[in-house]
Write a structure and sequence with these properties.
By secondary structure, this protein is α/β, with parallel strands linked by helices. The protein has 11 helices and 12 strands. It has an 8-stranded parallel beta barrel, surrounded by 5 helices.
């Protein structure tokens, strides 16, 4: 497991970041503990969570993931770079969501309690909040850094123009800035290469790529003629609505791309799961890739990707996929 520097900062993180959004819904506490233990054994020192996890739950389940992570952290806190986020609605109250000063201050205190720690290594805006001035958000985050409750700041799901605006505000007012961004990035979705990655390279912003397996689509386990199970990310939401993953990836062209990759790499005895992760890690501006799991076995299957080096012709096959896919408008979603 390689250890990488987070952008221009002195913070060192493993090239694999363990994603936890299944903890507390798809995974009970015991399974979640086993997954974190397996990741630690593989050399992962970086864990990403959020106050609004587990995903797919409701207002009664939000916060459960942080609680599980906090229980596991006991006796291990100094070994882990801990990242969490705020923005998600935490109740039906109008001020219990978003990136207002009020909510950020309330959210960080709640996360610290659930995580059973007195500091968060990396605190992130989970998504933009168009109803709150960006300078209000950044001043609140800056205060948390000066209070010692937060050590580094980041954002998730920010477009390049918005991240650039945030950096300009921080520079102008001498505020702690966003030192990493968390975007969706995988073989089937490479939009960030146009503007966001060049911006990050220029300003020394770390990149934590989420969805490197496209929600499991790049494992090859889904078949176009077999409806996805409701308990997967590609199933139904609320019994009626197709999930955001289904809207993003469940098209013939994406299935053809995965089938093509699977056929090519199976002849080379290489796991498509590991290839997809290895391809993301091979991108020079990516600091870390977020890998989640619903069982320890999945961790053991995924993490050998850090040792997989793709040959030049294999990289070419991977790179070519994106240019064969139709450019679809991303469905309107707040995050993930």
């Amino acid at each position: 497991m390689k250890i990488k520097r987070m952008g221009r900062t002195g913070l060192k993180v493993s090239e694999i970041c363990l994603g936890t959004m299944t903890f507390g819904l798809q995974c009970d506490e015991q399974t979640s503990f086993a997954i974190m233990n397996a990741a630690l054994e593989h050399g992962v020192n970086f864990i990403d969570t959020a106050d609004g996890y587990p995903m797919g739950g409701n207002l009664e389940t939000v916060g459960r993931t942080e609680t599980i992570v906090g229980q596991w952290l006991k006796g291990r806190r100094d070994k882990i770079v801990l990242a969490t986020k705020c923005w998600v609605p935490m109740s039906s109250e109008p001020n219990d969501r978003g990136l207002s000063r009020k909510h950020i201050f309330d959210a960080v205190e709640a996360s610290l309690r659930r995580l059973q720690t007195d500091y968060i290594d990396l605190y992130q805006a989970h998504a933009p909040d168009p109803e709150t001035p960006l300078d209000e958000t950044l001043r609140a985050f800056d205060d948390l850094v000066h209070q010692g409750k937060v050590r580094y700041l980041g954002c998730s799901n920010f477009k390049a123009w918005l991240l650039a605006t945030a950096l300009a505000i921080s520079d102008k007012h001498d505020l702690a800035r966003f030192d990493c961004v968390q975007p969706r990035y995988n073989l089937l979705f490479r939009e960030i290469e146009n503007e966001l990655l060049p911006l990050c390279h220029h300003f020394g912003i770390g990149v934590i790529a989420y969805n490197p397996l496209a929600g499991g689509f790049l494992t090859g386990k889904y078949k176009r003629d077999t409806p996805p199970s409701r308990d997967t990310r590609f199933g139904f939401l609320s019994g009626r609505t197709r999930s955001i993953y289904h809207k993003r990836y469940w098209q013939d062209e994406q299935f053809e791309a995965v089938e093509h990759l699977q056929d090519f790499f199976s002849r080379r005895n290489k796991s498509l799961t590991q290839v997809a992760i290895a391809w993301v890690l091979a991108q020079p501006d990516v600091t870390s890739a977020i890998v989640g799991a619903t069982s320890p076995a999945q961790i053991h299957q995924s993490l050998p990707a850090v040792e997989l080096k793709l040959e030049a012709d294999e990289m070419e096959v991977c790179n070519d996929v994106w240019f064969r896919l139709p450019r679809l408008r991303d469905p309107e979603v707040a995050f993930r």
